[in-house]
Amino acid sequence: MAEEETSTRPEFPLGRVKKIMKLDKDINKINSEALHVITYSTELFLHFLAEKSAVVTVEKKRKTVNLDHLRTAVKRHQPTSDFLLDSLPLPAQPVKHTKSVSDKKAPPPPIGTRRIDDFFSKGKAKTDDSA
């Protein structure tokens, strides 16, 4: 009797996963079974992260998953937090505007330089370099 193969084809391209694995200088050859296991494991892990991030997104009553939601999901799962949290970029700090942009005056450009606005204005001739 022929043995039926119940496994499905992985969603990630095996060639790319293999290239990523070979970036490690300690790895010379990759067995096809090991490649499939790593590929499936990666898919499962990313599905897990996506699901947990989606839960956080719904809890915060948002429609789009962002970095903050991903960080919260990783923090809630201790095994994942132990190795992944340090690799995630820090969220951007919210900028507090006390004055509007038009209220602030831009500092003058350093001596010997021009603003980029001067470069793109059509009607003006070179004024700094004509001496």
Automatic annotation (TrEMBL):
Pfam families: CBFD_NFYB_HMF. GO terms for molecular function: protein heterodimerization activity; transcription cis-regulatory region binding. Its main location: nucleus. It is found in: Nucleus. Keywords: Nucleus. Residues 114-131 have a biased composition (Basic and acidic residues). Residues 11-74 form the Transcription factor CBF/NF-Y/archaeal histone domain. Residues 84-131 are annotated as: Disordered. One of its GO terms (biological process) is regulation of DNA-templated transcription. One of its GO terms (cellular component) is nucleus. CDD domains: HFD_POLE4-like. Gene3D superfamilies: Histone, subunit A. The keyword Acyltransferase does not apply. The keyword Nucleus applies. Signal peptide: none annotated. PANTHER family: CHROMATIN ACCESSIBILITY COMPLEX PROTEIN 1, HISTONE-LIKE TRANSCRIPTION FACTOR CCAAT-RELATED. This is Transcription factor CBF/NF-Y/archaeal histone domain-containing protein. The lineage of its organism: Eukaryota, Viridiplantae, Streptophyta, Embryophyta, Tracheophyta.
